[in-house]
Amino acid sequence: MIVPIQKNKEFVEDFQGADNVSGAIHIWWLGQSSFLIKWNGNGLLIDPYLSDSVTRKTATTDTPLQRISEHVVDPLELSGIDVVLCSNNDPDRFDPETLLPLRASNPNLKVVVPAGNRTEAEELLGKAGPPILTVNAGTYTSYGAFDFHGITATTPKIRRDSRGNSKDLGFVIVFGPFSIYFSSATTWHTSLVKDVRRWSINLAILPINGGVDEDGPGETLNGFQAAALSKAISTSLVCPCHYDMFDVGNPTTEEFSSCCDRLGQRYRILKLGQRMTMGPVVDPSAGKAAPSEEHKDDWGLGY
User: Fold this and answer.
1) What is the pLDDT of residue 201?
2) In the prediction, which pLDDT does 219 show?
3) Where are the domains of the chain?
């Protein structure tokens, strides 16, 4: 099992202790496509998967998936989260076994989902679930410090419900002077670059586990495509995701990093449970994390 560089109490203390006033963004990778963001005391959790539900659900199928990395944190212990973003209803992105404990530890929690998934999301969470906010491609919603702009995602086709509402979305997340592009699972489609370049992107978070096989295009980007898309949208920095979670379809980061190097695209490959700090830092201690001191060379400003 892959062991996080910080987890449980140590991780929670790092999150709670990250500065609230310097204007810096603090970003932690929790595995797969799960990222935790803190800015000026505001907490955002993206596609959290902090359980073993996928392993149990697939155990009796033809394609069982075994977790190969330890949990970073128990969602019951993670307070300070204002809003959760779930980019589609895949079980490793919309996980009731993660979301319901998060609601217990964050009573005022809100969840943002594509509009076409609202009914299913409410059914999965039940009456104990948090309030749900919805977004379609080309629209946005706001909660607290964060604006969530819906970007079309193709897997590899566009999925909509019977009313034309989006079921898969990437998001440009805007807060303060920053814009983060989180693509979710998507292939490179004709309007993607144009849609995202409406913003000046400081950080892109892109999957690298896609590809093309005998059945046609995969459902998401591969390492080369993620690097090329990063360059095309002129992001300041890119972080890969969708690896080191399951024993099936687990890519290495080598293709992604080598392509970024050739393209001159700045990137950061985070370790499980690791914090990265970006942005204006007034307080010289901002971004310093004693629990990860041995990995200090992997930290630093994003741009």
Assistant:
1) 95
2) 83
3) 8-298
Looking up tokens 């069982």 gives: 64
301, 277 Cβ separation under 8 angstroms: yes
CA distance between the termini of the chain: 33
**Of the options 3.50.50.60, 3.90.180.10, 1.10.1740.10, 3.60.15.10, the CATH number for the domain spanning 8-298:** 3.60.15.10
Which pLDDT score, from 0 to 100, does residue 4 have?
Answer: 97
Cα 206 from chain centre: 8
Which residue has 């006033």 as its token pair?
A: 21
Sheet holding 34-39, edge to edge: 132-135, 110-114, 83-85, 42-46, 34-39, 25-31, 275-278
Express each pLDDT in 142-194 by its tens digit: 999 999 999 999 999 999 999 999 999 999 999 998 999 999 999 999 999 99
Angle at 277 between CA 275 and CA 278, to 5 degrees: 145
How far CA 223 is from CA of 28, 96, 208, 230, in Å, comes to: 21, 30, 4, 11
Task: Say what the pLDDT of residue 290 is.
Answer: 37
Claim: this prediction has a pTM higher than 0.70? yes
Flag residues of the chain having pLDDT under 70.
Answer: 212-217, 280-303
Which has the closest alpha carbon to 128: 106, 153, 150?
A: 106
Residue 173: how many CB atoms within 10 A of its CB?
23
Phi, psi values for residue 125, rounded to 5°: -85, -30
- CA angle in degrees (0–180, nearest 5) for 198-187-278: 50
